[in-house]
Amino acid sequence: MEEIQAWEDLSNIPPDPPVMREICNKCKRPAIVCWCSALPPQRLNPRSNIILLQHPAEEKRCLRTAPMLQLGLDEKKFYIFKGKRFPQPRHENLENLLKHPNTILLYPSKTAIDIKELENEFTSYNLVLIDGTWPQAKAIYTASPILHKIKQVKLITTSTSDYIIRTQPTEGCLSTLETAAEALSQLECDPIYRKQLIEPLHMLCKFQLDNGAVTHQSKEFLLKTKTYPKLIGKRLSKLLKTTNEYIEH
Ligand SMILES: [Zn+2]
User: Fold this and answer.
1) Rg of the chain (C-alpha set)
2) pTM (2 decimals)?
3) Which of 76, 113, 201, 208 has the most CB atoms at less than 10 Å from its CB?
C-alpha cells in the first residue's frame, strides 16, 4: 500500500522544474523580499525635483535605495543619470537642469550652506544628489566641473542612519534615500517625505535582520574600537580616516 502511494506521489511530480523565483515587476526583487507594500500609498508629489547622479557601481549593490526613491515619487519629479562624470552627451537634458538658477547640489563642501538656510528665493528647486560611496561621490564631483558652479547645500542632522545593514562610512551618514527624504522635508516644510519615503527601507532592514543579517556598526565606530583596520587593511583604513573629516554632522 505504502509503495503504491509512493509511486503515485512520484507520478505527480511535474516534468518541468518549478519556477525558480517569482520576481516583483515593480521593484524587480524576488517577491518574498519585495518592499513595494511599504511604498507611499500614493506617489508623493513635491514642488522640487530630485536629480540623482548615480555611480555605475552603486546600481550593482544588493542593498540599494535609489529604486525606493524613484517609486515613491511622482515620475515627473525624479530624474536619474548614470556615469562617473556629468554631463555626458547621453545624459539628455541634464546640462540644462544643472545650469538652472534654482538647481542646488547636496554636497558637504566647506562652502555648502545648511539647506534650512536657503532663503526662499524659489518656490521649487532641482535638488542634485550624488549616489555612491563617499570616495565615489568625491571622484564624480572632481570629474564634473559643472557641479562646482552649483550652489551647494548640506544637511545638518543628528539622526543615525536607519540603513543599518550596509556599513556606513561615518555616524550620521545617511543613505541616498534617507538624505533625499530629509532634504525634501526640509525644503518643502513637510514631514511626509521623511516619514513615508523611507518605509521601504525599514521593511528591507527588518527583513534582513529577521533573516540573520548582522547589524553593522559604522566604520567610524569600528575604527575607534580598532576592530576595523584588521578587516580592511591599512590603506583603506587611512583613507576612511581622512574622508571622515569631510563629512559634517
Ligand atoms: Zn516589489
Assistant:
1) 22
2) 0.74
3) 201
| CA angle in degrees (0–180, nearest 5) for 25-130-168 | 85
Cell of 30: 524576488
Which residue type is seen at 71? Answer: L
Judge residue 81's burial from the number of C-beta atoms within 10 Å of its C-beta, 0-12 exposed, 13-18 middle, 19 or more buried: buried
Give the number of other Cβ atoms within 10 Å of residue 139's Cβ: 16
Q: How far is the CA of 192 from the centre of ligand 1 (A)?
A: 21
**Ligand 1 center to 224 CA (angstroms):** 38
* 96-116 pLDDT tens trace: 999 999 999 999 888 999 998
For residue 77, how far is its CA from the centre of ligand 1 (angstroms)?
Answer: 20
What number of other Cβ atoms are within 10 A of residue 196's Cβ? 18
Q: What is the end-to-end Cα distance of the chain in Å, rounded?
A: 73
Closest listed residue to residue 178, CA positions, set 129, 113, 125, 213: 129
Q: State which residues have CB under 5 angstroms from ligand 1, the bound ion.
A: 24, 26-27, 34, 36
